[in-house]
Amino acid sequence: MIKPSAATTASLLYALFCTRSHALSLGAGASSSTATAAKKKNSENRPSSMIATSRCGLDPAVNRFHAPIVYHENYSFPNWPENHTFPMNKFSETAKALTTRHADSHLPRPLVRKEMDFFRPLDFVDVPKEWFSSVICADFLDRFLKGELTVEECRWIGFREQTSRPELIERTVLEVAGTILTCQLAHKWGIASNVAGGTHHASHDRGAGYTILNDLAIAANFITSPAINNGTANATKVLVIDCDVHQGDGTAKFELEGLYTLSMHCEDNYPRPKATSTYDVGLPSGTSDEEYMAALKDTVERALNEIEPDFVLYDAGIDVYEKDVLGRLRVTEAGIRARDRYVLDKCVSFDIPVAAVVGGGYDKNIQALARRHAIVHEECSFIWRKYHMWQ
User: Fold this and answer.
1) Residue of 309, 327, 307 whose CA lies nearest to 317
2) How far from 171 is each of 89, 113, 125, 316, CA to CA, in Å?
3) Mean pLDDT across the stretch 189-212?
4) For the chain, N or C: smaller number of CB within 10 Å?
């Protein structure tokens, strides 16, 4: 048997992606046998509303412990280069951290009891292409899905020869689908989080900095476009609060009506040159917890009062951590927790739905990294319990 090349397999994925029905409906169009079986198995768990999920998680109406959390098992995949800076297995490890009780936890049980309690986004073959078509350059999108980006484009992204791998193409699309589902859940319940997302360096016609398709911009367009959101996540003004250590330059370059961007980042770090966000806060290297929180409170308060958004997308990048491989700040884990709690509480207290994504984080100790990525989900759940948001 001749084993198909990565490019050939990517082309098959592309064909599946493009030949499905363009209707925003669950389970429409072509699918693999695996996806078909999964859809049949999960059909009874699907919501009556049109949220884009292949499987509902624990019903938020009866869940008094954690906010809705979105996860797909294909966010991570095996056989990733062992020494690559980008930790591809951090997503599966974060899910594992959320379903495991740790000795230093103040909770009496794991935050999430079992993987079935996560909301699962649509499978790759069921993701509507029109989510992307009005936001992402058609030529770039098609060539990426076919595994046909140029060597220079792949180098700029940072994944080089890995960029055409079908597993990477699939997980990139799934990540966007996960953020859209997170927005739909936040629209309905006030708060939700995705165990991936925050691909903020990608612009409309190219990827960069380990990001290929900008889930924040695509989700913001989905939220503000009644023709494609079907009333499942409707808003007119979306504010992206980006607290990754690197500026959200890609998101800032999108010219979408109703999209506003706040980026609080390390000024001395990637990217160079910087883009222009609606609000930019460039912090000096070595910024401490106290200095960080003072800048955060001032800027977030100002943005919420001036923009008056009716939806917030929160990028909770943990590469602000003092020992992060690619960060240059001196923010502790306690500082990350305080940051997340402040942003999430401020949004909910202003009655603004907030969808959180994990953003960047780099560490050779993948379990420690996953624990830090778990913080934003723990803080979403703290706010969930504080305000009894299941009611």
Assistant:
1) 327
2) 12, 24, 12, 20
3) 98
4) N
- Measure the CA–CA gap between 112 and 57, rounded to whole angstroms: 10
- Beta bridge pairs of residue 331: 321
pLDDT tens, 236-280? 999 999 999 999 999 999 999 999 999 999 999 999 999 999 999
Annotate 142-160 with DSSP letters as a single string. HHHHTT---HHHHHHHT-G
Q: How far apart, in whole angstroms, are the C-alpha atoms of residue 330 and residue 323?
A: 8
Q: Which positions ≥6 away from 300 have C-beta within 8 Å?
A: 241, 262, 342, 343, 346
Q: What gap in Å lies between CA 195 and CA 117, rounded to an integer?
A: 13
Q: How many CB atoms lie within 10 A of CB 220?
A: 29
Question: How would DSSP label each residue in 59-95?
Answer: -GGG--S---EE--GGGS-S---TT-SS-TTHHHHHH
Structure tokens at 382: 């703290």
Global pTM reads 0.90
Answer yes or no: 201 catalytic: yes
d(CA 271, CA 282): 12
Which one of 201, 204, 373, 377 is the catalytic residue? 201
Q: Which residues contact 38 (CB under 8 A, 6 or more apart)?
A: 54, 55, 123
* CA atoms of 119 and 212, how far apart (whole Å): 23
